[in-house]
Amino acid sequence: MQVFSLQILKNLLNNCSKICIYAIFVVPLQAFLTKMRKSGLIILLSIAALVCLLTGCGDYQKLLKSRDPEEKYQAALRYFNEQQYVKSQTLLDDVANYYKGTERSEDVLAYLARSYMGQKAYESATSYYQAYVRNYPKGKYAAEAYFQVGHCQFLESPDPRLDQETTRKAIEALTLFVELYPESPYAEQAYSEMSELYDKLALKELKSAQLYYNLGTYLGNNYLSCEIVCKNALKNYPSNKYQEDFSWLTLMAKYQQMVNSFEELKAERARDAQDEYYNFVTEYPDSKHRKEADKMLQQIRKITKD
């Protein structure tokens, strides 16, 4: 009986200790954290209000409600110069119809395009620059507009594995620009971007040629298809940076056609492969593929008897 009473007393003391700890430490801590959360929220709201005040949120909201197009236009230019492109674009959109057909319409259209460029919204910027070119082909922003049409499409050009319609449009637009404005400060950049775009088209063809080569004789003579793709790429993109790769693939494809041909065709295809070997080593005497090419020639000569 005495042992039982002592046990009950011990349990009561333990429970009391827990209650005291909870009351002394946990409850005040929870209250403190709740207060801090409320204070933090108040601080955040205060900061947001201060930022809004400093950045002129109220002024911008008033401008949106304003019925004065001149006030909106001047504010749009000010926001543009401050690199607040969303605000400038929004205000210019508001006054575009009002100024349509006036002298100021040209400026509104140009700054709308520039505002979209500032936001990196290149597709929209392209549309506005194209609209400018259509409406003001010899306007004061014409050189910029012609260049930016191609430049925006250059920036939108996709990965070589994807459809390259945008890449081709960019090349077309940049080509037109350098024809119209060969002395423009943008001309050098336009040529550089065109070179990069042509390389992208060439790379797409190179990947296609490599695929044909890897397919080999599966469901037909894919080596011939590889050869055709390479030759067309070298013809269509004569200054691309993958020229050696195309030439090497062509030689390998011709060699494999020799190896896999019927006996009555081996001699003819061996001569074709041999000619291609000499073309390759003449053009790229220090190629990293030279040793492999020389080994091919040894096998070719066993057939040509040279």
- How far from one another are the termini? 117 Å
Number of contiguous helices: 13
Low-confidence stretches: 1-6, 16-23, 48-53
Q: Strand tally, please?
A: 0
Q: Mean of the pLDDT scores?
A: 87
Question: What amount of the residues lies in strands?
Answer: under 5%
* Assigned CATH architecture of the domain at 206-306: Alpha Horseshoe
User: Shape from CA axes?
Assistant: elongated
Structural class: mainly alpha
Short description:
It is built from 13 helices and no strands. By secondary structure, the protein is mainly alpha-helical.
Account of the 3D structure:
The protein has helices spanning about 1-55, 55-65, 70-80, 85-100, 105-120, 120-135, 140-155, 165-180, 185-215, 220-235, 245-260, 265-285, 290-305. By secondary structure, the protein is mostly helical. Among the domains are: about 1-55; about 205-305, Alpha Horseshoe (Serine Threonine Protein Phosphatase 5, Tetratricopeptide repeat), CATH 1.25.40. Helix 7 packs antiparallel against helix 8. The model is unreliable at about 1-5, about 15-25 and about 50-55 (pLDDT under 50).
